[in-house]
């Protein structure tokens, strides 16, 4: 309050013709609103930490603040309050204009605030774990905007809870903004040409074996401070997962090397609150004729429960102009979530509310985006304008509005919320790929595979290039007992992507169920060649060899059965059942010493195993009788 009162006094003095000086009038504003980016080593093209720095830019500062180009802040005032809001008052803007007009005087240094001090490395101190990209990315001098993905493995051996992340760009001149995505199944690695090389792309989707929707915006943009999650809202990191750093790179006119790092900060307080990211989008409706000044797309959903909206992430490309999002409450009143009157992709980001926005059950959330594909749009990349449709490229368009919501009810309500959202989307867009896929997943998780089949078939038809839809259809067929169809479907998935190990693993399971032991073992060996640390595949291969041995033993082919059991041993060394099978097969072949070894191994694994004790006694007696 003291700072605000002092600032008001300065403004009033300036208004009656008193000199505006750097130290007394300009420095308090610059240090608060500008130097997070405009300092050495950060993304701003010049520093504003000193009087000499600012004086050289006095006219420029007056111009960009008058136009509200700087500091960059997209949400319009009066609709919602956000934590990182950077918006100058009219009085502050006048200070810059008066200062430049008066020749940018310095004033008395003793009247100014201290120069801010910044950490040279991590803003929150040394992280608990630092993740580094395997290889830097070399950006050519003549390249355009690039969206690049770095894969960063998370080298932990036990589950940890992450309360905050911090992204260090490595090269803030080229590194415009970034999102961090969680890839628990390490499926993004298939997109790389070589290990650690990374891959291009904007809007990424990862496959998960269980329902585990994203609940946090993990992002970075210039000038932001790390977000520390409140107690109970840390997110789960577990062994075998990757983080994907999805980066928007801007050309600088010369070759740039980008080598980012991510710091993780852990907490011992596990997750007890379950936020979820909810998306509105109408990319399918984007077909914008050249010259169209106000092309409008909308989307909406009705809340199925009381929720709090914690933060939002509006997203479009270069043709978007006005972006609106609001909720219509059950009583008919309107509650704004955000209004952006002049969208600029360069300053997109996550906006976090100072206080959660409460929306009661049966509120309708609406997204309304306006696109300008005329020559009057200064950000239109095409001159003359050309027809633009929706798509996952920077030269196409998107209309996305993400919300981070937290159900008011206790416990994990995400599955209930997800089903409601998917049901509404299917009612509007029956052929929507994501909605059909998610509904199939919902039915599959409920243990109702026959119902899931219909939705996975629609998803696969909607996007025949989706290996995930093709594979999940196979899972539903397999779970419902349609083995021949499941086998054909997994083979079809592998035609889409021959390196999709989950489909090959599932194909091997179907082949084993059909008694196709050789094919099953061959497919599992290929899975292990591609993913040597895939413990589940190793165990399954051991099981296949065991069942193959059982089939041979049943057919009276004990020597062949023994060979298969022995092939299973490296994968199932702790299996009592396998040791017993081997012991019995050896006994039937009168290979008594080897039989005794296997039963003794079984007894070591399970000391109270009566069958093994009896077998050892009988074998010893038989060895005395036969001299073997």
Description:
The protein has 628 residues and is an alpha+beta fold. It folds into 4 domains: 2-111, no CATH class; 129-267, Jelly Rolls; 276-423, Sandwich (Jelly Rolls); 430-498, Serine Threonine Protein Phosphatase 5, Tetratricopeptide repeat, CATH 1.25.40. 36% of the residues lie in helices and 20% in strands. It has helices spanning 2-15, 22-33, 51-56, 58-66, 90-101, 414-428, 433-445, 449-462, 467-479, 483-496, 501-513, 517-530, 535-554, 558-568, 576-588, 592-605, 610-626, and strands at residues 129-132, 137-139, 146-153, 160-168, 175-183, 199-200, 219-220, 235-237, 242-249, 256-258, 261-267, 276-281, 287-288, 295-302, 307-316, 320-328, 334-340, 351-359, 364-371, 388-389, 399-407. The strands form 6 sheets. A 5-stranded antiparallel sheet has the order 6-3-9-5-7, with no helix packed on it. A hairpin with a 5-residue loop joins strand 16 (320-328) and strand 17 (334-340). Helix 7 (433-445) packs antiparallel against helix 8, helix 12 runs antiparallel to helix 13 and helix 15 packs antiparallel against helix 16 (592-605). The radius of gyration is 31 Å and the shape is elongated.
């Amino acid at each position: 309050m003291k700072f605000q009162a002092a600032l008001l006094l300065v403004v009033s003095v300036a208004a009656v013709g008193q000199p505006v000086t750097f130290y007394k009038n300009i420095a308090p504003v610059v240090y608060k609103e500008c130097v997070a980016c405009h300092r050495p080593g950060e993304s701003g093209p010049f520093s504003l930490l000193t009087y000499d720095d600012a004086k050289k830019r006095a006219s420029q500062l007056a111009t960009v603040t008058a136009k509200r180009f700087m500091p960059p802040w997209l949400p319009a005032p009066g609709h919602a309050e956000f934590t990182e809001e950077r918006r100058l008052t009219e009085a502050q803007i006048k200070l810059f204009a008066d200062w430049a007009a008066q020749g940018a005087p310095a004033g008395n240094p003793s009247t100014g605030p201290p120069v801010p001090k910044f950490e040279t490395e991590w803003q929150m101190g040394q992280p608990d774990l630092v993740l580094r990209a395997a290889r830097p990315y070399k950006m050519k001098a003549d390249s355009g905007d690039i969206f690049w993905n770095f894969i960063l493995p998370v080298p932990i051996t036990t589950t940890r809870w992450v309360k905050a992340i911090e992204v260090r760009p490595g090269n803030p001149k080229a590194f415009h903004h970034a999102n961090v995505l969680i890839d628990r199944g390490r499926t993004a690695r298939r997109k790389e040409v070589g290990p650690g090389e990374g891959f291009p792309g904007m809007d990424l989707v990862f496959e998960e074996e269980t329902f585990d929707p994203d609940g946090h915006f993990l992002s970075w943009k210039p000038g932001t401070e790390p977000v520390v999650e409140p107690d109970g809202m840390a997110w789960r990191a577990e062994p075998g997962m990757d983080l994907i750093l999805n980066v928007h790179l801007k050309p600088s006119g010369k070759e740039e090397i980008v080598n980012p790092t991510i710091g993780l900060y852990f907490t011992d307080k596990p997750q007890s609150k379950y936020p979820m990211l909810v998306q509105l989008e109408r990319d399918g409706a984007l077909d914008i004729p050249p010259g169209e000044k106000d092309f409008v797309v909308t989307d909406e959903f009705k809340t199925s429960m009381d929720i709090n909206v914690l933060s939002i992430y509006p997203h479009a490309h270069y043709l978007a102009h006005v972006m609106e999002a609001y909720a219509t409450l059950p009583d008919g009143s309107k509650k704004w979530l955000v209004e952006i009157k002049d969208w600029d992709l360069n300053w997109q980001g996550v906006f976090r509310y100072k206080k959660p926005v409460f929306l009661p059950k049966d509120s309708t959330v609406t997204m309304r985006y306006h696109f300008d594909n005329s020559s009057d749009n200064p950000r239109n990349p095409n001159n003359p304008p050309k027809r633009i449709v929706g798509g996952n490229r920077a030269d196409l368009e998107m209309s996305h509005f993400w919300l981070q919501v937290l159900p008011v009810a206790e416990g994990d309500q995400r599955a209930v919320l997800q089903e409601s959202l998917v049901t509404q989307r299917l009612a509007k867009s029956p052929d929507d790929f994501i909605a059909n896929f998610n509904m199939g997943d919902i039915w599959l998780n409920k243990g109702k595979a026959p119902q899931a089949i219909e939705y996975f078939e629609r998803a696969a038809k909607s996007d025949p290039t989706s290996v995930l839809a093709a594979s999940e259809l196979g899972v539903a067929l397999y779970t419902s007992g349609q083995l021949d169809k499941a086998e054909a479907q997994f083979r079809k998935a592998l035609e889409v992507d021959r390196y999709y190990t989950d489909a090959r693993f599932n194909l091997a399971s179907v082949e084993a169920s059909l008694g196709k032991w050789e094919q099953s073992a061959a497919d599992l060996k290929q899975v292990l060649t591609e993913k040597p640390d895939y413990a589940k595949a190793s165990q399954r291969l051991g099981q296949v060899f065991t069942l193959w041995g059982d089939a041979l033993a049943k057919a009276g082919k004990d020597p062949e059965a023994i060979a298969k059991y022995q092939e299973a041993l490296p994968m199932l060394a702790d299996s009592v059942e396998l040791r017993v099978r081997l012991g019995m097969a050896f006994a039937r072949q009168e290979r008594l010493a080897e039989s005794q070894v296997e039963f003794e191994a079984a007894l070591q694994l399970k000391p109270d195993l009566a069958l093994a004790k009896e077998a050892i006694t009988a074998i010893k007696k038989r060895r005395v009788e036969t001299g073997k």
